[in-house]
Amino acid sequence: MSTNSKFIDLLANGLDRTGVQPGSKLVVAFSGGPDSSALLAGLTELSDQRRLTLVAAHVNHQIRTDSSDANQVSAQLIAKNLNVEFVATSVDVPQFAAEQKISIESAARISRYLALVDVANSHGALRVVTGHTLDDQAETVLQHAARGAGLRGVSGMRFNSVLKIPNSDIELNVLRPMLDTPRTECIEYCQRLGINPVIDESNASLDYTRNKLRLDVLPQLNAAIPKASQSLARLAKNSTDDLNIIEWVVEQNLANSRIDKRRYSRKDLANLPNSLVGRMLMRAYELQVGHALNLERTHVSKMISLLSGKSGTSIGLPNTTEFYVDKNEFGFRSDDHDDCPYPSSIELQKLNAPGATELDSGVTLRAELIDRPLILDHKNQYVTYATPDLLASDLNLRNRINGDRFQPLGMNSHVKLQDFFVGLAVPERWRNRVPIIDSAKGIVWIAGYRLADWAKVLPEHQTVARFELTGSKER
User: pLDDT tens-digit profile of 217-233?
Assistant: First the structure.
């Protein structure tokens, strides 16, 4: 059955913009309301031409138990009349909101997308199609603008995007082919086909911000400025074009500065404007966490400030993430990633010399007497050669303590260990974990950094003490 309607033309153009290929299997987010009903019916009308396989996925949010089940039955009937497979899933949104300490709106959105991911996976579908309309786009832009969002916020929703579920590794490819379609076209199309959409009572509640915009703010705005909704949707398109240019520049510069997936070169940002650096930091954070939720402008400003300051500093960010700045690099750390190459704290213990002393995390400190090598200067920072007399004395292994002083190789005087660490730009988060060989005469070796001058190999030494820290973790 063909209606030859403007709605179908808009939907077909929207599908082209999403990049849907002929022969695709699509899961349709189907509440049974006017928008999703028009979407499902329209896709059904286009399915023969485009060889689409459709699955209608209904999520029962259990917000109003008395009407939620009735709405599910009505949605199932619509799908049945359209000859589309129907799948229903129930989620307890109020309980989820309470457990996660988030709003009902946020809980409904997250739990809905999680349910849609399950349906897509179980049906072998790569994409989920939603019924977001031009009016939804206008609401989104207005809401984000009112909250002071930047270009990304006012660019609104996109026809084809990858949605990352907060606090998880789950991603969902979401298609929104009706972003150019006014809601009135959906309603008229349903009426033309004799479809009686589900009326969700929660959509009339002014307890939700989105409903206030839909029911109060936008109607008044459209009355004051005719076609304001269309203008807001057009603003989203224009902002998207500008944002695409900015994101290209950000990605290019971020790629140039990337050391690995967590670390970046500090010098590569030194001559860039702060506005670009800020966007690069936001993108790097997003790559680290999987999303940029709860990252605020104040966080970005603090990161920029740390980058232009001294090394060895860090700040905590949302989503249990830490931003740090070292001498030559900066990056992000999370609870599940420890970038320190040293073991956890070391209780004062006797060093087996000669012999091996086992530490946590598979790290071992070995001490042995060997013939003097031809070359004492080597590139392995975890190996040092010292006077052989050390192996005849009592040596201890520990971490730093307050008041530690040290005579670094090549110096006549002692320095505070704290100042030594700062001078070498040893990250602050590492300093309490660096293994130290100590003796009655003082600190012998700061493992990975420097031998004491008094413990150096002398010209007359035919044998030397060799110390090596093995098993230190790669960053």
Answer: 999 999 999 999 999 99
Give the tokens for residue 442. 């003082």
Rg (CA), the chain: 31
Instruction: Choose among 154, 161, 176, 293: nearest CA to 233.
Output: 154
Nearest to 56, CA basis, from 195, 165, 158, 187:
195
Per residue, what are the HEC states of 230-244? Answer: HHHHHHHHHHHHHHH
Average pLDDT, the chain: 89
The pTM of this model reads 0.67
Task: Give yes or no: residues 390 and 291 share one domain.
Answer: no
Residue 251 has pLDDT above 90, yes or no: yes
Strand duo 53-60 + 25-29: pairing? parallel
N-term to C-term CA, the chain? 62
Take residue 198 and report the two structure tokens written for it: 């589900």
Amino acid identity of residue 310, one-letter, is: K
CATH code at 296?
Answer: 3.30.465.60
Q: CA 335, CA 167: separation in Å to the nearest integer?
A: 13
Specify whether 33 is located in the same domain as 68. yes
Angle, helix 6-18 to helix 34-50, in steps of 10 degrees: 70
- Structure confidence at residue 475 as a pLDDT band (50, 70, 90): very low
Of 461, 313, 441, 288, residue with least CA distance to 373: 461
282-319 burial code (b ≥16 CB/10 A, e <16): bbbbeebbbebeebeeebbebbbebbeeebbbbeebeb
